[in-house]
Amino acid sequence: MTETTEPMGRRERKKAATRQALADAALKLFLEHGFDAVSIRDVAEAADVSTTTLFKHFPSKEALLFDMDEDVEEALVAAVRDRAPGTPLLEALREHMLRTRLLKPEYDEQLAAFQRLVTSTPALVEYHRRMWMRHERALAEAVAADTGAPADDPACAALAHLALESRALATAASDRVAAVNAAFDLLERGWAAVSGAQGRVA
Hints:
By secondary structure, the chain is mainly alpha-helical. It folds into two domains: 3-60, Homeodomain-like (Arc Repressor Mutant, subunit A), CATH 1.10.10; 69-197, Tetracycline Repressor, domain 2 (Orthogonal Bundle). Helix content is 72%, strand content 0%. It has helices spanning 8-33, 40-46, 51-57, 61-65, 69-81, 89-98, 108-119, 122-147, 154-171, 176-197. Helix 6 (89-98) packs antiparallel against helix 10 (176-197), helix 8 packs across helix 9 and helix 9 (154-171) packs antiparallel against helix 10. The termini are far apart. Mean pLDDT is 88; it is low at 1-6.
C-alpha cells in the first residue's frame, strides 16, 4: 500500500510513536548529560530520525521535555467542560488534580529527577512558566464559559490560578493527597461565596 493510500489511523500511530521516541530520547539524554550539553542533533540521532522530522513534532528543544503540554491543557479544560451533569465545577477539578501522576508514589523518583532538571536550567524554568500561564489562561476561560462570566473575569482567573497551585503545594507536602484536598476545601468555600454573590452556577 502506498503512502498516499495508507489509512489515517496507521499514519497517526506512526506519528505518535515517533513523537514518543523523540521525547523519551530527549529526557534520557537531558537527565544524563544536562539540557545545555545536548543538541537537537543528538536527540534526533538517538531516536533515529532526522532533525527535520524532529522539528515536525517539536517546535523547540525545550518542547521536547514538555511533550505532554497540549494533552495536559486539554485535560484541564475537559475536566470543566466535559464533567458529568450535576457535578460541581470544583469537585471535577479536585478529582482531576487527584488523578495526576504527581500524587502517585511510584513516580516519585522520576518526578524528582525531572524537577531537578527543570529548576537547574534557566531556559526550562522560563519555558515552564510560560507553559503554565497558558494552562492557567485556558482553564480560566473554560471556567468563565461554564459560568457565563466574561472571558477575562478576575474571579475565574483567580480560581484557575489557585486550583493549579494545589499541585505546587502537593509537591512540597508529606501527604500530597491531603494537601490537594485542603487546597480545594478552601477554594470551594470561597468560590461558593463568590459565585453565590454574583449569581453564577458553581
